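Batch job 17 of 40 flagged for manual review because the log was empty.
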Amino acid sequence: MLWVLIAEDRSDRGRLRLENRDAHLAWLADSTEHVVRGGPFVADDGSAMTGSMLVLDFPDRASVESWATGDPYLIAGLFDSVTIKPWREVIRPD
């Protein structure tokens, strides 16, 4: 089942995001069987990353929640909020 995880960064995000970026990317690289798509949200002018969005493949919400606790960004306290929603893909142009 597909899930979307939306994480909004805290307003003082800059340093926390940069300090934990390599660990976050390595953690995602170790999860390729679950990560379908993902990337950061950016400011309107593209000057800064402001959050994250991941499309994940897990059997249930509990599995997503358990997996997400290992995110170095979450552990570092980068996020102001995290939302997890079930998602059904309908359009896929590629």
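Reviewer: the log was empty due to a logging misconfiguration, but the result itself is present. The mean pLDDT is 95. Unflagging and moving on to job 18.
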